[in-house]
Amino acid sequence: MAAEMKQKLARGQKKRTKPFCFSSFFLYLFLGIVTLIQVYPLIWLFLFSFKNNNEIYSGNAMGIPHVWRISNYYSVLTSGNVGIYLINSVIVTGITIVLSTALITTSAYAIVRMRWKASHLFLNYILLGLMVPIHATLLPLFIVLRNLNLLNSYLSLILPYVVFALPMGAFIMVGFMKNIPLELEESACLDGCNVYQTFWHIVFPLVRPAVATVAIFTFLSSWNELMFANTFINNDRLKTLTVGIMSLSGQQGTAWGPIGAGLVIATVPTLLIYLLFSKQLQKSVIAGAIKG
Amino acid sequence: MERLLRDKKAIFLFTFPTFLLFTVIVVLPIFFSIHYSTLEWDGFSQGTFVGLANYKSLFVNNTDGFLQSIINSLILALISVGIQLPISLLLALIIARGVRGENFFRTVYFIPVIISTVVIGQLWMKIYNSDYGMLNTVLRAAGLDQYTKPWLADTHTALAAVFIAMLWQYIGYHMLLMYAGAKSISPDIYEAARIDGASEAQMALHVTIPLMKPILCVCVIFAVTGSFKAFDLIYVMTGGGPLHSTEVPTTLMYTTIFSRYQYGYGSAMAIFIIAECLIFTLVIQKLFHQNAEG
Amino acid sequence: MKTKRLFAGILGLSILMASFTACSGQQPANSAASEKGAASAASADDSAEKITLTFWNNYTNDSNHVMSGIIDKWNADHPNIHIEANSTENNAYKVKIKTAMSANNAPDIIYTWAGGFTQPFVEAGKILPLDEYLNDGTKDKMLSGALTNITYDGKVYGLTYNQQAGALYVNDELFKQNNVKVPTTFDELLTAVKAFKKAGLVPMAVGEKDKWPGMWYYDMIALREGGSQLCLDALNKKVSFDQPAFVNAAQKLEELVDAGAFAEDVLSQTRDESVAQFSQGKIPMYFGGNFDAQVIDQSLEGKVSAVKFPTISDGDGVDTEYLGGGADALCVNANTEHKDEAVQAVKYLAENFSSSMYLTGAGLPEWNYDSIDESKIDPLSKQIMEDIVQGSTGSVPAWDLYLTGNDAQTHQDLVQSLFGKQITPEDFGKQTQSKINKAA
After folding, report:
1. pLDDT tens readout for residues C20-51
2. For B18-32, how does the pLDDT look when each residue is reduced to its tens digit (9 = 90+)?
3. Rounded to an integer, what distance in angstroms lies between the CA atom of residue C346 and that of residue A157?
4. Diameter of chain A measured on Cα atoms
5. Residue A130 and residue B4: Cβ atoms within 8 Å?
6. Interface predicted TM-score (ipTM)
7. Is the pTM of this model over 0.90?
8. How many contacts, defined by CB atoms under 8 Å, are there between A and B?
9. Could B254 and A135 be called an inter-chain contact, meaning their C-beta atoms sit closer than 8 Å?
10. B265 closest CA partner among B64, B69, B74, B70
11. Which fold has domain C167-324+400-436?
């Protein structure tokens, strides 16, 4: 029995290693080509940010700029309040991520684990949010926020961002939680944990990969959101970064170079955040593997 | 355990904040929109109640191309599920099975999702430019001059051109979801399969993919509803043109409400989109459910 | 337990709903903002009557600099009437102001486009009529006809400070190099188009992805075909669009398209892109607005002139009529708490915006401009003002400005169909009539 097992194992390993060299060349070639395609927009954006309209609207739309116009960056950094906009964006997206994560994990836990009649109905109710085209909600939402006296405040952005992140987040989270074995929670229960402790100490750490994934998506959608941010905020001190950058374009013609520079500035935090959550995702995946 | 999980107070605490916020921010506006959709209303003056007339004019004697826009969005949904998701799945499986540089590839493949749609739109408009665009330049270099085209200006190619850009941008999005799903499968299961002598392809087909069913269901639903609600990149690249050839329900709704001042009629479009997404989601869920049981 | 929870939920919701219906009535606009402003002012210094006027506009890129200087000056001169301006990017501004108008939450002072854009606001009673405030000599300070486009049903609802005028920009250098005569008639225009086409150039620039640039071409040709009176009558639904002048105009545009006047990817080019190509000296002709002058002057200084659009030999229009008219305007919210102060501010802002926009080449004046140092004015703008606007015998605004939302869109779509050759000139006339002018 043991010998047979060993044999099988050996065979399996053989099978894996033998064609490895040959096929792995093509594998990495393939992965490399895909890498080029996916990285290209970032490089393009970087080059774009040093050009002027004449270059952007001509044969040199793709290549290296003739002149490296650092002035594009200068004009972004000096026009308006980029620093304040950046802080606003960080505040709004930061609170959005924390709030949405809290709501999503607790709701998903209640849906997946807890026993109540309406749990399935509740999930479907939340999923309704996936169906809504946000542009249609602008006026109704404006009226709701006005009546709650929230217009022109951070909350007027945070609340919609959190809520529009819920359906997707809940959906992903529920899918993940279903796959987590119950044993750990059962033993925690035997150890005398109450439901809150079980949730916080057992379940939450286990769903960290999902939390990281959801947080990335939530971050992206709220960081880049324009329509609500344009409409609900009137105070220059409360504007977010993307709004500030897009206001560099004008009624009579748009200088794209400075906008490119602004978008580079806005993209850097996005990349950093993504790398950060990515690391978290990776770590928790490995941690989960060891425990499991 | 049972007792704990039936704790009414805990259930309430866990769900009520979500329920309340969601109801106020999403559901209440939907009811507003349903109300608007029964009005003939420019958004400012007193609206007049017209019952279901707005819905009727979406389909009967329709002149603004709403039906064509639905067909366009259905095509998008179809190729999204049929082409985009398989590519994402392939990438996710390759990376998740532990190639060297796993983190690097995962990070890099996600980049297009991170970059603002404004930039992605500009990039693709340059690629498709008939004069100096990358696509035509490559074709000319390959001696295929007869195939060069003003891709976004030609009503026959614009739709495909826009859709390719959209599919490409979100490959990394679905890949990340699937990657996380694949990663959460216990390594023991792979070990067992490997002991049974399964090849990589067999393992992917018979072990990984079936176990990823929940996340695949999520991806399919996101892809389909995302297609029905797609707006940003189309709006940047073509604005629904040329000559309405790339119009989808959301772009039409946007111009109807904000440029044509037909708030009631535009709201009827919005409600239709919601209903359409809802029906498809239920069907997809049912299909996956049946599959899981059968 | 369960019923109790349900009850609590329903109770919570109904309280919420009640609060909604309670305050959804006609709230005085932005009262919260002005109260806040007033409160903070009161605590800062004790001079009681300090008020804040909110002002939304689309002054983003360069214009922002000029405009905010004027607003700052007002605030310095009027310590008790503070203008709090808020700028939003152009397209986003349109959505924002419509949403706020709809929800009765618009600012005290509103930037707007004269003509069809403002009409629904006026009809819904959301804009303050200004007639009673204008007899203090304000009207005398403005150019004649400056208020035409912002007058609805005989009442003035705002003050314009910038007007548009269409001009044919020609690149003199390219004309000289290729030995082509600058056209004054449509036949000469066709000849010029063919000559440039032969020389391997794209003859005319237009960014038809944005729809309105191509519409400017059609509206201009229609003006030459039918004359200003006929165009205005048709736009006012008094006469039909399905008549020779408008069909012929479509025919003329088709002739240009067929002669290869425009680039092959005209339907996917944006306005910015087409202007950039003209500014790079790649394209010899461009019919556009005076608002393009600044950009063109910056890159092709002295090489470009702005001339009148060619006349059509059998058309009823004359070369002293132009496409354009009062465009940018300031209005006062009908629900504002500070009507007098807001009107006073609007007068000040409009007058000063008018002269500074002319000076910087960003616009053409609507107010008297005698006091402006002529040598400092942007040369192309000056040329347009002197050659095309002054001494004109009539003008028609670009139709998308004149018509309201739906009709404007429909018109733009139909013109785009001409560019895409999806419609015959005859059908163009018929459809314009049946879709826009049902009443006539």
Report:
1. 443 433 343 444 444 444 444 444 444 557 89
2. 999 999 999 999 999
3. 31
4. 81
5. no
6. 0.87
7. no
8. 263
9. yes
10. B64
11. D-Maltodextrin-Binding Protein; domain 2 (3.40.190)
